[in-house]
Write a structure and sequence with these properties.
Number of strands: 7
Radius of gyration: 19 Å
CATH class of the largest domain: Alpha Beta
Strand content: 5-15%
Distance between the termini: 32 Å
Strand order of the largest sheet: 2-3-4-1-5
Order of helices and strands: HEHEHHEHEHHHEHHEEH
Shape: globular
Number of helices: 11
Structural class: alpha/beta
CATH topology of the largest domain: Rossmann fold
Number of domains: 2
Bound molecules: adenosine-5'-triphosphate
Helix content: 40-55%
CATH architecture of the largest domain: 3-Layer(aba) Sandwich
Largest sheet: 5 strands, parallel
Length: 270
Amino acid sequence: FDLRNSLYGQHLASEVILKAVTGFMEDNNPSKPLVLSLHGSSGTGKNLVAKIIAKNLFEGGDLSTQVHLFIATHHFPHSAKVDTYKAQLQQWIRGNVSVCPRSMFIFDEMDKMNPVLTDTIKCFLDHYTQVDGVSYRQAIFLFLSNDGGRVINRMALDFLKAGKEREDIKLNSQGLETAINNDLFNNKNGGFWRSSLIDSNVVDFFVPFLPLEHKHVVMCALAEMHTLKLAPDTAIAGKIANDIPYFPQETKMFSVKGCKSVKQRLKYYL
Ligand SMILES: Nc1ncnc2c1ncn2[C@@H]1O[C@H](COP(=O)(O)OP(=O)(O)OP(=O)(O)O)[C@@H](O)[C@H]1O
C-alpha cells in the first residue's frame, strides 16, 4: 500500500487510512462498511488518496467497475431534482453492491451535497446485516470535502508557530478530530449539516489533510517530472514552488491551493 511514498506531508492521513483500510480488508466478517471522511483545503491530496486506495484494492484502479465516483455539483446539480437523484443514488448503490459487495463509492464535494442525499447514503452505512436483501458490509465509502479545512489549517498554523514539528501533530492529542466534527456540525451550508451522518456515528474516521508547505510543493513538482519521464530538476521545482501563493500574509507558511496547479504550471516552466 504505497501511501507514505506518494502522499506528501500527510502523516496523519497516511497512518489512519493505511490502518483503517488494511484492517477492513483483513476482516472476513466486518460488522459495517468502511466509512472514511477526508477533510482539508484544496489540493492537499484527498482525491489522490481515493485514487491510491482504488489502485491498491481494485484491478484497473479508479477506472475499475467496482469504483464509483460522485461529484456533488456534477452529478446532483439541481436542488429541484433532489427526489430523482435520491432514487437514482439508492438504485445505483444497491444495484452495484448486490452484484459486487466489494465496491467503493467516492463522494467528492460533500460540502456541496444536498442534505437529503447525505441522509440517503446514511442508511447504507450502518450495522444492518442486510437492507432489502443486500448486505453493504464489504463496501467502502469515502467522503471528500473542504469542510473543516479552516479548523485544520488554524491548528497546523498554531502548532508550527509554537516551534513544534509538523509530524508531532496527532489526531487526538490536539483534539483535531473533535474540532473537525464540531466544525462540520456547525457549518450550516455544508452537506453534513442537519444530516444524521455525524449524529449516528457511522463515519469510522474523520481524516484531516494538513495544509502543504513550500517543501511539499517542490516534492509534488519533482513527482510530476517523474510521471512525465523527465529528469528531476530541483531548480525548476523550486521556481514553481516559489511562484505560487501562500498564506497567511505575514509568514507565508502554507500553499493556498496545495499542489493543485503544479502539474499545469510545470508545462509552462519547461
Ligand atoms: N499531499 C500530496 N502529496 C502528493 N501530491 C499531492 C498532494 N496533494 C495534492 N497532490 C497533487 O496535487 C493535485 C491535486 O490534488 P487532489 O486532487 O488530490 O487535491 P484535493 O485535496 O482532492 O483538492 P480539492 O479539495 O480541491 O478537490 C494532484 O495532482 C495530486 O497528485
